[in-house]
Request: fold
Amino acid sequence: MKIFDGQFPRELEDEAIYIMREVAAQFERPAILFSGGKDSITLVRLAQKAFYPGKIPFPLLHVDTGHNFPETIAFRDHLANELGLELIVRYVQDAIDQKKVQEESGKYASRNALQTVTLLDAIEELKFDACLGGARRDEEKARAKERIFSVRDDFGQWDSKKQRPELFDMLNGRINVGENVRVFPISNWTEIDVWNYIREEGLEIPSIYYAHEREIFERDGMIWPDSPFINKAEDEAVSKKIVRFRTVGDMTCTAAVESEADHIDRVIEEILSATISERGARIDDKRSEAAMEKRKNNGYF
Reply:
């Protein structure tokens, strides 16, 4: 059992770098799924180390819902420009305009689930055979079922019963025509591992991960960010609070937590004493007990 000692276990970095190099060796056209969140930022740093002194050989692919936090979009563009990375952006709005998906309506309307069609279209258009993502097994029970090399069929769908065994760190990237693989280099990390890595590497992250004053409203016992993309009721009054976000997604499905953690050390202390999980503030996961697994079965990240 690993005992938390406040330090990042470097064997996890070694494993992730090994996985990334295997992706480069076994696949023809990989990409990093980049959201601008802490986990995908960690992937970029790992890729830098894996291929140093060369450039990262994978483009960044971002599926933009159009309802993202502006701080995250600004950070995405800043990081890609600073590191000289190829950034490919595809938009959910295009799929809506093309009538491939239908905009949700009502109190809990969100574009989060609509990302799947845009992602699968981008994979087909750009001929990606592997997409590296920042999902971790500790986040959610459906993600705990994922292999590091997670095979998706020619419809982009995931079947937890048809995944390959991964024995002795042997990663099998062989796929049939039309199939692709989602790769999770930090699958074995925890939320605290990610934060300790960010601290030790001195990584820059979007400001919304730290405590800041924001206009919010409360619904269902959760703190929602005020946004023109969210359908508020007349009795849902907007106020200001000092909050931060533990996870970064679409504004319509990501709740905040009250916090005074304005520095990474305070963030880590707060997480260690938290009584809810990291994704406990993800509104989309509360639609049903198996919400994440259903989305993954359909081709979600």
In short: The two ends are 30 Å apart (CA to CA). The beta strands are 30-33, 60-64, 87-91, 130-132, 149-152, 180-183, 212-219, 222-225, 239-244, 257-258. Residues 247 and 278 are 7 Å apart (CA to CA). The mean pLDDT is 88.
